[in-house]
Amino acid sequence: RWVLSLECKGSRNLMSALRRAVEVDFKDKDKHKSQGLYLLTTGIPDQETHTISAYVAEACGGLDLQLHVCLFSVTEGTDSSGIIPARYANPRETASAFKEIVQAANGRFHRFGEAGIFESDDIKSIISEMEEAKNYSQKCAFLVESLKQRS
């Protein structure tokens, strides 16, 4: 509920936000079976990717805690307010950085923009499951056909 009272503001200081979320807001983390942090962002964090990855790997390591990222791609080189961030990366580099971070945190990555969904770990998983079901169905159909020919 507290999320609904928040307003968009601040910087791309992801380390500060993660520390607050993990070390302050999750003080009762032992009472919950699993928890997830969702980062909604439009660009690369101010800190280096390897630094954030190392932190989330350590922070999420002993817990059932995942960091999921939803990256909204906007006009290249600016954030949604038109301000060039302290650390710049093009959309491909930004996506790559967040993929590395969520991998370290056992999370999921989603990238979308005004044109729609560019990539999503959830959608990849669903498509993979559908492909597996299709392959299984084809094997079953082949087996049934083989049995019919023997009769």
UniProtKB/TrEMBL annotation:
<protein>
    <submittedName>
        <fullName>VWA3A protein</fullName>
    </submittedName>
</protein>
